[in-house]
Amino acid sequence: MKKSYLLLLLITIACQAPEQQLEGEEAAGKEQHPEVSLTQSARQEEINVPKMDLSRDALLGKIEPSQDEGFSRIATKFTDKEGVYLRTSAYEDFVRMAEAAKEAGITLQIVSATRNFAAQKSIWEAKWNGQRKVDGMDLSQHIPNPKTRALKILEYSSMPGTSRHHWGTDIDLNNLNNTYFASGEGKKIYDWLLAHAREYGFCQVYTEQGEARPDGYQEEKWHWSYMPLASQFLNQYNEKVSYEDLGGFDGGQVVREIEAISKYVNGIAPPCRN
Fold it and tell me: What does DSSP say about strands 202-204 and 85-87: parallel, antiparallel, or unpaired?
């Protein structure tokens, strides 16, 4: 009887040993390599921001970021401007992205971030009324037709109330000229962003126009959007904002005629929709 019991015990131990050894090796492996680099898809899954419900006014940019606890001020090491803000989660992931880029010899600098309605109105009306030239032209003199003038400004500038910069999710990086990113240091920056920005939640919303993106602004290689929040806000914008909500600025009479919401607010690159 004792011999049978001992034999059964030995068989049980022998069967369990390989499994226990494997578990120990796996655990040891995890302890020895705690910082194994994540794949892009795994990094994206790691980005987990809470659902946010913005008011109509916030979607239209009628906010003051410096007085909103949901925003963080951008450190001067990342921008040469004063008083620049982003939604906190967007800023935190930008910092992680900038630090990773730095390790690769790439410096990311924010040229512009959150712009509220008043700031966008100032830019728009300066171009509309000729104080700020567009392609060397005073548009108030060269393009008297309101629709045509608006479409010219809309090549690169949003109407107040329609800019993604209102949401605190979008940034302009390093240079506001596509040719800068075509060669030299600019190309290194752009190539790195194309390869890695999505790992941190950022997407180039205004790609080259064509069959995939027939509407909206011209290509902007500098404009990157934090999709974990921006995709939420775009859906909310389409639910809450109508053409009746847009106005209060020079040239606002043509917002419906030029289809500012359907062609410009929604005129983004398909990969950046979700």
Answer: unpaired
